[in-house]
Recover the amino acids of this structure.
């Protein structure tokens, strides 16, 4: 019976995976998604209108009323509040924390600032190479790794990646080589390659800097990954708030394909304002034209991923590291995004294990009240904890995490209550709503925190927060809910000003 | 069918490969609370009230959907499990009107010591007016715990009508037709399979809703008569709920090999002719 499967009906007709691109097209032209437009899209793509409505209303960026869609955004997230942004008037983190207080005008998004990172391994071409020119990329050592990979063959490439002991940079620190091997060995076909560029963790902007400044590197790395894991089709899912990165990556894909350097079809997918889509299975659902609701694991993406097929999903920083592995230039450094009360906010490429204090000195931090390590899903550190080595083990030993590599610095002037409230608001706003612990837990967490800061801290409220935190950590479906109480719990425990 | 061996609360049990931890718990007679699980729909594991502790897993796992594996060590009565179950029940009951859920749910609330009132009087709820837009059934989303069952029953798990879906996000997520269109203008075909799977009374026969409003609904006076639907040749098993010699509600047993609990508009709602006495 092999090769005799016939698909017909809805399975063939439905083009549900085109829903988000179509919705963006509608909104870009009309300024909102009207009922008529949505129903037309549903007819053309064979999607039930109720389900499409569920999708439109899920994503923050789609407007269901005229005049509600915004192309200009003001950020009022943690870092931007430190820089004077007024609370309650803006959107969640735009990933422009190095330019806080951040504004984004999508129609005339500024070119990436030509900041150079001379000491950086991963960012050595940023600000030097012309991000719009494949020739410039080649002149700066581009496509050497791909050539090498083609010589070596899939098995050897995976062996080298495994030998480098590279751990995923998206937050979970899973061994990259093992992931590649699992997908390469998976029986089912086709295999998909997905680059997770939905960088949305507050205080994180390293992937943006890579994509804006050195887009060909990511495309080359995807070509290598596809070769190694036998992927037939690739996607790059870029958050909607990174229009410059999106355009440059699309151009880099086009030029690489024309030059015969990209064998597989790589599609750029545009997010639509949902932090949760950085969770890999929510991201798959988003590409498939569904609500960005995470799936229960197992099964894991290497077996059942995008469109139910074996999928290799890696973060931007993880992928570009592979080029250095093949070029023999790899070192175990990691990108950290330093922002907040520092003289030189930006991306720092430093060896894993470097003490946090050293990084803060380089970034020009003055007196420090607290550091939020790992973004909203991370935890607060006190001035006494700044000697922690920035490694997976080092941070774990003090109950913290490197997370996305966000390092947000608060000096003595910072209003820590405001910061905690902003984190609570962020998670309440970004919870997908699928599972009870997170849907109701993030809501209650915000309510209780507001009450505590307004009326003083009662023992019952402290107890409630800790009860909710444990249930969210233990029983939520995905990492969002599991970490939604981390920063708040650590702040309340560690920061003396909050105990007053 | 091959079997796998696992232990639940220290007791050895054999379970069919491909079955769930919940199946194994039931086989041992371990009472496991469930809200979004029902035997005739694919588990969606969203309510998280059935979570259990699995050796080697950082987080708790949902018993309703997690498949058994050889050598699994599971605890269903640990402090962590009891805590999460209690919190799920508290979070739900503090935001949703759970007064029409089954008596079993009340039992679990008691068993796990749930006190929903402890979040305080200011805790946000999903309270909203009842939607009465047709003669057959009403939708009271103040009672909706967002278990996804109605969406599944309306979709590929039973009816393939896709009249409703989850809309919005986070605490504002809710069940809706497209643009909140009233049911008569939506794709709804009134099969009532969503009512059949709703665990909280959010979806209810209009007959039941009206009788409750009048104070006339009285389950202790009701009898259930099993019969076969007279309309077509499929032979769906019906359960007629009768009060004061009138049919007030129609269901079908979940374990019926013909219906798996699902019916069509005629079997579900086409009973008025029986009691037209003119």
């Amino acid at each position: 019976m092999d090769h005799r499967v016939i698909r017909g009906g809805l399975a063939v007709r439905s083009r549900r995976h085109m829903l988000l691109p179509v919705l963006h097209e509608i909104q870009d032209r009309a300024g909102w998604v009207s009922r008529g437009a949505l129903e037309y899209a549903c007819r053309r793509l064979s999607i039930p209108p109720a389900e499409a409505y569920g999708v439109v209303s899920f994503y923050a960026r789609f407007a269901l009323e005229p005049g509600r869609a915004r192309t200009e955004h003001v950020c009022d997230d943690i870092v931007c509040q430190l820089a004077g942004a007024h609370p309650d008037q803006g959107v969640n983190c735009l990933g422009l924390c190095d330019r806080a207080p951040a504004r984004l005008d999508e129609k005339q998004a500024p070119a990436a600032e030509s900041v150079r990172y001379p000491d950086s391994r991963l960012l050595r071409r940023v600000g030097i190479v012309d991000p719009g020119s494949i020739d410039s990329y080649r002149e700066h050592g581009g496509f050497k790794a791909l050539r090498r990979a083609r010589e070596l063959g899939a098995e050897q490439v995976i062996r080298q990646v495994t030998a480098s002991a590279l751990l995923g940079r998206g937050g979970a620190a899973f061994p990259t080589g093992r992931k590649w091997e699992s997908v390469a060995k998976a029986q089912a076909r086709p295999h998909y390659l997905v680059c997770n560029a939905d960088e949305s963790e507050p205080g994180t902007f390293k992937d943006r800097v890579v994509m804006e400044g050195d887009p060909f590197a990511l495309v080359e790395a995807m070509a290598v990954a596809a070769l190694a894991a036998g992927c037939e089709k690739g996607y790059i899912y870029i958050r909607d708030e990174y229009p410059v990165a999106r355009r440059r990556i699309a151009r880099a894909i086009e030029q690489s394909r024309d030059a015969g350097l990209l064998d597989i079809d790589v599609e750029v997918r545009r997010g639509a304002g949902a932090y949760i889509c950085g969770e890999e299975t929510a991201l798959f659902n988003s590409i498939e034209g569904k609500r960005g609701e995470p799936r229960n694991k197992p099964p894991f993406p290497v077996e059942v991923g995008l469109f139910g097929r074996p999928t290799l999903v890696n973060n931007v920083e993880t992928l570009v590291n592979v080029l250095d592995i093949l070029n023999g230039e790899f070192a175990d450094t990691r990108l950290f995004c330093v922002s907040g009360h520092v003289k030189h906010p930006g991306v720092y490429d430093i060896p894993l294990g470097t003490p946090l204090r050293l990084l803060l000195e380089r970034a020009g931090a003055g007196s420090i009240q607290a550091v939020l390590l790992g973004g909203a899903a991370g935890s607060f550190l006190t001035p006494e904890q700044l000697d922690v080595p920035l490694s997976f083990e080092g941070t774990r030993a003090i109950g913290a995490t490197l997370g996305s590599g966000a390092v947000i610095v608060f000096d003595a002037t910072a209003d820590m209550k405001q910061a905690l409230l902003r984190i609570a608001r962020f998670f309440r706003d970004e919870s997908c709503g699928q599972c009870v612990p997170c849907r109701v837990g993030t809501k209650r967490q915000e309510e209780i925190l507001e009450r505590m800061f307004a009326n003083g801290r009662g023992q019952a409220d402290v107890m409630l927060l800790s009860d909710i935190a444990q249930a969210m950590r233990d029983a939520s479906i995905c990492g969002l809910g599991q970490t939604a109480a981390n920063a708040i719990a650590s702040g309340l425990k560690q920061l003396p000003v909050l105990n007053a | 069918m091959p079997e796998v061996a696992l232990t639940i609360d220290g007791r050895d049990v054999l379970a069919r490969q491909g079955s769930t931890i919940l199946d194994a718990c039931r086989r041992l007679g371990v009472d496991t609370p469930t809200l979004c699980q029902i035997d005739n729909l694919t588990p969606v594991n969203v309510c998280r009230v059935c979570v259990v502790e699995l050796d080697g897993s950082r987080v708790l796992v949902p018993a309703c959907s997690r498949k058994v594996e050889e050598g699994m060590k599971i605890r269903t009565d640990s402090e962590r499990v009891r805590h999460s179950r209690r919190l799920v029940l508290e979070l739900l009951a503090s935001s949703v009107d759970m007064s029409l859920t089954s008596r079993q749910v009340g039992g679990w609330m008691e068993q796990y010591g749930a006190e929903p009132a402890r979040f305080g009087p200011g805790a946000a709820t999903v309270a909203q007016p009842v939607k009465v837009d047709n003669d057959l059934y009403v939708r009271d989303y103040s009672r909706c715990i967002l278990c996804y069952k109605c969406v599944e029953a309306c979709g590929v798990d039973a009816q393939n009508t896709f009249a409703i879906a989850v809309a919005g996000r986070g605490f504002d997520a809710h069940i809706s037709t497209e643009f909140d269109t009233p049911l008569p203008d939506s794709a709804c075909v009134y099969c009532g399979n969503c009512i059949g799977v709703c665990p909280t009374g959010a979806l209810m026969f209009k007959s039941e809703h009206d009788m409750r409003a009048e104070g006339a609904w009285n389950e202790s006076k009701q009898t259930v008569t099993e019969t076969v639907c007279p309309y077509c040749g499929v032979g769906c098993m019906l359960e007629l709920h009768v009060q004061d010699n009138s049919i007030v509600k129609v269901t079908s047993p979940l374990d019926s090999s013909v219906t798996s609990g699902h019916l069509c508009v005629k079997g579900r709602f086409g009973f008025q002719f029986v009691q037209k006495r003119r």
In short: Residues 436-455 of chain A form the longest helix (20 residues). Residues 72-108 of chain A form one domain. Chain A has 21 helices and eleven strands.
